[in-house]
């Protein structure tokens, strides 16, 4: 009900004339995240499929929600780097002398407090954003010419990064070159990399979101521009559910005597894998699960280790009620490593809900209205549906067509579209409203249908995806019109 009210309120607000006209007919750019061959390395590496230079040098870039520059490893990066497995972990190497389109820019002043230990250079070159839906097909590319790139000479982090911070130069280029609708971006980081130990791949959508990658409820938050990660949320509770279904809150003073654990602000980041929680919450986590620091810190990120595999889960509850559950396989991986970092009492760094959290969550960012949205990520059997994310609108997931002939035949869309063309906005609002209410009523039915479909789809992950995108996509005409309506 709350979301209903929010929807109405926001849609009324959006009726106000936009101060700037966005062209929300522009399709988004979808760039997937998985393991692939990269330039000058024999190892397949996990990241966003982005090339640089002419001819193309292909890379796998890790998305960062804080760094503003898109960066590449210089060929000499590993000669003086403390990055573990550096030669096969940079996301590729950029040889600038091999690119005919590269132009050095010595006077460029970095927008970042760089983590490349004082040693990086800047220039302009062509970025190539590859869209690659199916392994069997070739990729298509979007060229972003004269993009600002950072070339990392030395440092201790993996240097191949898509910078999606508040002042992202890539997003800015895409907008100023009129390639996407606005400063919007969505991310599912996936879990097909070694630390997460999973198989599910991720995606970036520039100027859009993947409507097949998340479900309701969609939660809205204001960005906190003063934080390094503007994606800041308030955590109100963290509970551990034991295998027998019992819940213990790590903030519960009747369970953890003398604890001063309470609600706290945390920044979303992909710059590290483990969560960094307040000292007292971390202590309670250790007590509840007998977790301990690994004395050798073998994995280099201070993750706590559990004494044995744990079949329970951990649920993080945000102050608006959005709760995200880290399942057992995330809470203790095959080496019993947990996704929670040890923390000293005097540590004053921010608290982070980091990559481990984002393996379960779809993030949608609107840098034009400084708003972001979080929703449960659909991890398996998703159907890729890149959809324009018009600034100042609320992203909605694709809802599977159901029994209803209205929805199946796209008639809701047709009605809205038709009315929108002819009559006044009030009637459009009513139709949209009626359609929405109907859709909501159908949702329970849909859930059952979805469960039935799931079993079947498990066997046809890719093939079924192709067919469904083509034959059962959202009522295209209607959705587009509906979308325009939302924008106003
Ligand atoms: C909006 O973008 C679409 C797709 O790129 C284009 O065909 C159309 O001409 C644009 N409209 C305006 C008003 O710029
Ligand atoms: C993820 O991408 C890899 C290619 O790197 C592919 O082999 C694999 O099947 C994909 N996983 C899923 C679950 O689609
Ligand atoms: C490597 O880094 C160390 C410490 O920053 C420095 O003393 C040394 O000169 C560097 N070596 C090269 C080859 O850059
Ligand atoms: C990116 O730019 C924003 C300002 O737009 C700044 O607050 C943030 O600190 C920058 N990121 C880094 C890593 O310095
Ligand atoms: C880079 O990727 C594109 C798209 O798949 C491909 O056409 C091109 O051949 C690749 N370049 C190299 C050097 O592998
Ligand atoms: C390329 O980008 C730089 C820095 O943003 C700018 O100064 C220059 O004018 C651009 N060149 C062209 C040809 O657009
Ligand atoms: C568990 O996590 C550690 C720490 O990053 C990683 O090195 C290891 O590969 C993971 N193990 C499995 C089986 O996923
Ligand atoms: C424990 O917490 C989970 C996650 O919030 C919830 O789904 C479940 O109903 C709770 N169980 C009990 C017994 O309260
Ligand atoms: C925290 O305290 C430890 C000793 O207890 C000290 O070694 C460390 O430098 C301190 N860290 C900070 C950030 O003050």
TrEMBL record:
InterPro entries: PEPTIDASE_A1, Peptidase_aspartic_dom_sf
First and last residue of the signal peptide: 1-21
Sequence segments annotated as region (Disordered): 465-488
TM regions (residue ranges): 411-436
A single GO molecular function term of this UniProt record: peptidase activity
Transmembrane in keyword set: yes
Biased composition (Basic residues): 477-488
Keywords, comma-separated and alphabetical: Hydrolase, Membrane, Protease, Signal, Transmembrane, Transmembrane helix
Biological process terms in GO annotation: proteolysis
Record-annotated Peptidase A1 domain positions: 46-375
Record has Acyltransferase as a keyword: no
Name of the protein: Acid protease
Organism: Westerdykella ornata
